[in-house]
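Backbones bend. Our protein:
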Amino acid sequence: MPELLAPVSTRQMLLAAIHNGADAIYMGMPGFNARARANTMDMAELGESIALCHLYGLKAYVAWNTLLLPGELESARHLIPELIGLCPDAIIVQDIGLARLIRHICPSQIIHASTQMTITSSWAMEALEDLDIRRFILARELSLRELETIRQHTTRELEVFVHGALCISCSGQCLASFAMGGRSANRGQCAQSCRLPYDLLLDGQEQGPARYLLSPTDLCTTGQASTLARMGIQSLKIEGRLKSPHYVAAVLQAYGSALGRWQWQAHMPPPHETMALTFGRRFSSGWLEETFQRTLMEPDYSGDRGLRLGSVHAVQGQQLLIHQVCRYTPQAGDGLLLVQGKAEHGGSVYGVAQAGTQLTLTMGREFPAHTITPGADVFITSAPAVEKELERSWTDQQRQRTIPLRARLQGRAGAPLELHLHDEDGHHVRNSSQIALEPASRAPLDETTLRKHLGALGRTPFAIEQWEVDVEPGLFLPNSELKELRRAAVEALIARRSHGTPPPCVVLPLPAVTHAPQCAAPRLHLLLRNEAQLDALPGIQLPMGTVYLDLPAGQDPTSALRRLRDLGYATGLCTPALLKPHDGPSMEAILNHSPDTLLIRSLSSLGFVLGQNAHPTLVGDMRLNITNPLSFRYFLEKGLHRLCPSPELEENQLWLLLEQADPGRMEVPVHFHPAMFHMGYCLFSGHLAAGRPKPACGLLCQHHLLEIRDRKGQRHMVQADATCANTIYHGQSLNQLHTLPGLLGRGVRDIRLEFLDETPAQARGILEEAARLLTGKALQQAGAFAPMP
């Protein structure tokens, strides 16, 4: 049976998880987790929470799942032993450098790979084999069939998200917050850009009014949970550290019922309705089913609407006559939301009358019932009675989780009474009375008396279910002594269960920085996204490196590669950023073109290529999320020749990275369109072809230009790749040519320009500007290199 893994950010959420059947919980590392808006505990509270979990037999994982900046390694070096001293059962990590640092300090600490690592295949796991990661939290973009394939190709533990909010971008690959607002989702500062409305433009023409084109439904897989269990998935994960304890309770109860652990309570609304009442976007099974293109998105709204009650068919004064479509019947005090077109009205229910599926709801005088027309959708946004019932699951002592014990009593005249307590996890404590048993003058101890006084554990987490009494008859011990014996035994067992022994840590210095000899002159690398941009190249007087091709789906790079070779340029191709288990043929097709260089965009692509007998020169792209010298060095040791730093590094952070890592092995893009969203969802199919799969979709991506337009009027281009993944590039390029003197003065010798939809003339203009900066006076003053003859 897989573990049910619940989110926790507050004490109440923790209690809800413990007493509603969670097997494990995960909490954020203070200051370093992917939910910066959550009420993260401090280190002391974190330790108390871990101890409470261990007391009740739950595992406690700590999510340190953000990227580490160059200036944070020293503090991380000291925080790691402090965290490990709290005895977490695992640390969930996104940053490769952090994983390496944990291994450096504590080789035996269990590490789980965060979904932010974009683990989409067993190839990614093979690439990280030397980090000895115990469990991989897989990307949400995988189907049941793909999960089964991964399960068959690895012995590592696998964790799958089964419930909660979905990101439209692959986790770890979203730059929308950075590109649109200067924030970093990889640092826990997601700006929820996917939940905003956008216009869709096909070949420049609007396709209807603005909608929530990038806002997915919420994941709900109660129907697939047993399949995942049979498949051998070790952990079923619930998203929601920003949610309420009522949400935690409802979801755990629903999945416990789906897995056959207990019966759903008949007096409660059905599981899906109870969950929707605690937080409700429309539910879908995410990417698990092959039909996800038709069910994944909710373009009409993006927020929590609760449970859909039905629709209005008449209005009589302050009474709404509603056709009910769910089983839950509202009660006085429930919150109501009515939606008609773009208008929304909220209020509280004052009275309820029911006749079959027809409801009559009386609203308060302040509710604008006169504005409501038949056909309006009705949602229940709050249900205090349901919330109160859920709350009882962790506040009512009679319903709280208990730890079954086996008790053994031994006693002889003239000797202390011994109490042994054993739990199911193998813990054992033995305590003795402070005074000896003596012959009774009246009311001798019997088994009933001993059970009554020693088994009174009502205010503790324990319940004695088995007794073994071996006490001579006719003996006496004061009741106060029995009470003290019970108290001491319970405290000893609590301590034994709550506090483990942490693995040993050694706070070693950070690894020293070594620099390879630098090449004599800088080189300029280009990345082109259409073949016409090749026309910008002839006559450029610059020392050129690689010209990468990142052509859209359906465009064969053969002729473009031939042109580049005829011009004398080194050629490069780009790997998919989302490589799934059955996408091997796409990688083989890339390798069959024999490029000089391969731009690696994912751990899966890296693992696939390293498994080949021979491969081109490898360069790590921005999507590997390299932000510190430890991750930088790790990928160099994997055989990558050059690496691109994360674009989310601010200028001062990049300068610090250049001091700590080898600048001669860095390839820095200084002109590019940020890849805001990289999605395992196809906008072409989902919004223009009724969700049909390739090739039934009509291969629209190969014949049309698709864009989205944000609220500020900025257009952003959508590009599909050979795996049907979509990338949305920011319409405004990020031009950092002004940093060239600083980069070259600090030892960087590989500079990259990327073009998206620039015309050959526009690309030529940017190339000429780069040439001016690379060969002009400003660069000479920086002392980087002499101007070209």
Observations:
- Residues 523-673+733-782 form a domain with the TIM Barrel fold (CATH 3.20.20.60).
- The chain has four domains: 3-176+196-287, 307-397, 403-498, 523-673+733-782.
